[in-house]
């Protein structure tokens, strides 16, 4: 709470200085400097994370350096059309060339950037630093979750080192992309869902639903995390340790179906352009079959009916998580991408398969649901590399939990 208060102070200070004519570059420097000091203060003083302060400081330094390189020297991997589109559209909103009520490039994320510009100005340094600071908050939440789950040191270290130092994660955390904000909101929702999983207090599920819904505003696929949480809230039988669709839960199933239809219909028709284009099954099949770009995969796969959609979905799922595949390598870049990114996802997924445990069922089910949706809408390894970062917290936390339980029989309770 104290950290949040000081952050609000920083924002208000920048707004005050902006109103008296301080240049935007100076405002950005003030915002970056004071936010960095606040982050460092938290790292050194919070009991949940200070034991990992060296790791966190290195992770922050690497992201900060990558951001500076991208802004002032040369573009780093994954930088390009999207981040320029987000920034320029937010700039047009700020300059009055577009209206906040218009449908714009990047939608909610771009409009959030515009609101941010109102407080600290339009200098790119301040805007892009929000991605860096958001990524560090996300890492801190992951550490808190792993600590709360009472995992052994090895399992926690695997998760922490991976989220801090995976190259593609670092690059995405250093450029102006919405993926980092989505990941933060998803991670917070995971924390709340795990709390609910253990003590069933409704307040935790309400918060989990809220944060997952917020994440879905920035990318529609995340709505399926919201739906999964909702299904577990209504239908999960704690004594049986599984979803129960019959018996005394039958009336809940009826309520759940009504809620899914109403909420799903409202979301897909009012908040999301991706699903709006699916006016019939033919447009859905066409979209799922579409493969373009130099790193396109499964280019010969054509889906024309529901049977083929179910038949080919596992292939899309696998390619989304693990591409570029070795037989599709186009050069050294694809090889490095596979070894430094795909192999990590392969390892984390293999942990669950090998141990024959699904870990935290609510997190595992959310991972499967949202990954499947992402995979159906993705057809090249470049996009897959960026989008699968959105499901990494779900996979990472669940895999670390499974790895720990298989080693030491960890008790299923949270550390208070």
Indicate the percent of residues in helices.
Answer: over 70%
Number of helices: 19
- Mean of pLDDT: 88
Helix-and-strand structural type: mainly alpha
Count of DSSP strands: 2
Reading the helices and strands in chain order gives: HHHHHHHHHHHEEHHHHHHHH
What percent of residues are in strands? under 5%
Spatially, the strands of the biggest sheet line up as 1-2
- What coarse outline follows from CA principal-axis ratios? globular
Uncertain segments are 407-411
Radius of gyration (CA) equals 22 Å
Q: Terminal Cα separation, in Å? A: 19 Å
Q: Give a short account of the largest sheet.
A: 2 strands, antiparallel
What can you tell me about this protein's structure?
With 416 residues, this protein is mainly α. The protein is 72% helix and 1% strand. The chain is built from 19 helices and 2 strands. It has helices at 2-19, 24-45, 53-72, 81-94, 107-120, 124-148, 153-165, 167-172, 179-199, 202-218, 223-235, 250-270, 273-276, 281-289, 306-322, 332-355, 361-376, 381-387, 392-408; strands at residues 236-237, 242-243. The protein has a two-stranded antiparallel ribbon. A hairpin with a 4-residue loop joins strand 1 (236-237) and strand 2 (242-243). Helix 11 runs antiparallel to helix 17 (361-376). The longest helix is centred in the N-terminal third of the chain and has 25 residues, at 124-148. It is globular, with a radius of gyration of 22 Å. The chain starts with a helix and ends in an 8-residue tail after the last helix.
Summarize the SSE layout with pairings.
Elements: H1 2-19, H2 24-45, H3 53-72, H4 81-94, H5 107-120, H6 124-148, H7 153-165, H8 167-172, H9 179-199, H10 202-218, H11 223-235, E1 236-237, E2 242-243, H12 250-270, H13 273-276, H14 281-289, H15 306-322, H16 332-355, H17 361-376, H18 381-387, H19 392-408
Antiparallel strand pairs: 1-2
Helix pairs in contact: 1-2, 2-6, 3-6, 4-5, 6-7, 6-9, 7-19, 9-10, 10-11, 11-12, 11-17, 15-17, 16-19, 17-19
